[in-house]
Amino acid sequence: MIRAALFDFGGVILSSPFEAFARYEADRGLPAGFLRRVNATDPDANAWARLERAQVDLEEFCDLFEAEARALGGEVDARAVLGLLRGELRPAMVEAVRRCRQRLKTGLLTNNVVTMQAGAMSGAADPHAEVLGHFDVIVESSRAGVRKPDPAFYEMACRELDIEPSEAVFLDDLGVNLKPARALGMTTIKVDDPAAALAELEDVVGFPLG
């Protein structure tokens, strides 16, 4: 039985940052997919991973990330790249979260950075703040000190929600983040097309979401 619905933030509740990455690359004359390639190089110990675990501050991250990009042949502004993370809310997904909370426990599982906490993750005046109220539990990598896809991240969410992994459905836009959740026993849904993902979620939870 599904007792909890768990959602990623960027790329699920918000539009994908990869769309903004693509625009940045085109504007700066960088190869398509360059920023994702930087993040995929040494993914557990690179600048991005360390920032999401709050192991480096903003200045350290910028120096490290720009050096990593330079090593791959590109010049980037690390602060500008971080600014690309703020996407637009997807109303249909927000409504689905609202309806899920009426019948299930809900959790937000997000890899984020400390610099986001004053905005998207905590600011009362922030346009994203209202949706955060639909979650019983919010697990942020920059506060937890662990990030997806580390299994400990999902286990932490389950403990806070007082559920077994097999009682949860989890939506994320990255397969690498879904694989360990599935291994723990969660039902997983990959969000490529949000409408298709919501239809799949409806089948899993057994009630209408729109």
Gyration radius over CA: 17 Å
Cα end-to-end separation: 22 Å
Strand order of the largest sheet: 3-2-1-4-5
Question: Which overall shape is indicated by the principal axes computed on the Cα atoms?
Answer: globular
Please describe what this structure looks like.
With 210 residues, this protein is α/β, with parallel strands linked by helices. It has two domains: 4-16 and 87-205, 3-Layer(aba) Sandwich (Rossmann fold), CATH 3.40.50; 17-83, DNA polymerase, domain 1 (Orthogonal Bundle). It has helices at residues 17-28, 34-40, 47-52, 58-71, 78-83, 91-103, 114-117, 129-132, 141-144, 151-161, 175-184, 194-205; strands at residues 4-7, 105-110, 137-140, 168-172, 187-190. A five-stranded parallel sheet has the order 3-2-1-4-5, with helices on both faces. Helix 11 (175-184) links the parallel strand 4 (168-172) and strand 5. Helix 6 (91-103) runs parallel beside helix 12 (194-205). The protein starts with a strand and ends in a 5-residue tail after the last helix.
Short structural summary:
This protein is an alpha/beta fold and 210 residues long. It has two domains: 4-16 and 87-205, HAD superfamily/HAD-like (Rossmann fold, 3-Layer(aba) Sandwich), CATH 3.40.50; 17-83, DNA polymerase, domain 1.
Features:
alpha/beta, 49% helix, Rossmann fold, 210 residues, DNA polymerase, domain 1
Give a topology summary.
Layout: E1 4-7, H1 17-28, H2 34-40, H3 47-52, H4 58-71, H5 78-83, H6 91-103, E2 105-110, H7 114-117, H8 129-132, E3 137-140, H9 141-144, H10 151-161, E4 168-172, H11 175-184, E5 187-190, H12 194-205
Parallel strand pairs: 1-2, 1-4, 2-3, 4-5
Helix pairs in contact: 6-12
